[in-house]
């Protein structure tokens, strides 16, 4: 991962949006934090954040859950050195294919 990241112009940070999954990733030793910090440290100045498993939130495709995750991740990315206002936050479902190739009506 380090070799590829050091040569990248943009990072796509995939974040688990399920209850428990997100909290583990954003925790002090979580991989979400680690990957965001590593990307910035290695010079990747552009980032896209994708919130995966939105079909597995309660309720499915929960706007409240999405907003909660965006707020917390934005706060952390700002501490790392990114400008959250310039980062697209995209809710997705890899399993259902929502927002993967075409815009999904499930995530409006």
From TrEMBL:
It comes from the Eukaryota. GO terms for molecular function: GTP binding; GTPase activity. PROSITE patterns: G_TR_2 (PS51722). Keywords: GTP-binding, Nucleotide-binding. Residues 1-108 form the Tr-type G domain. InterPro entries: P-loop_NTPase (IPR027417), T_Tr_GTP-bd_dom (IPR000795), TRAFAC_GTPase_members (IPR050100). This is Tr-type G domain-containing protein. It comes from Solanum lycopersicum (Tomato). The lineage of its organism: Eukaryota, Viridiplantae, Streptophyta, Embryophyta, Tracheophyta.
């Amino acid at each position: 991962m380090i070799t590829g990241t050091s040569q990248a112009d943009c990072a796509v940070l995939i974040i688990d949006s399920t209850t428990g999954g997100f909290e583990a990733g954003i925790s002090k030793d979580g991989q979400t934090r680690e990957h965001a910090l590593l990307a910035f440290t290695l010079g990747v100045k552009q980032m896209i954040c994708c919130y995966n498993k939105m079909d597995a939130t309660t309720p499915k495709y929960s706007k409240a859950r999405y907003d909660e995750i965006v707020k917390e991740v934005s706060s952390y990315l700002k501490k790392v050195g990114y400008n959250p206002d310039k980062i697209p936050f995209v809710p997705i479902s890899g399993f259902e294919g929502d927002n993967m190739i075409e815009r999904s009506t499930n995530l409006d």
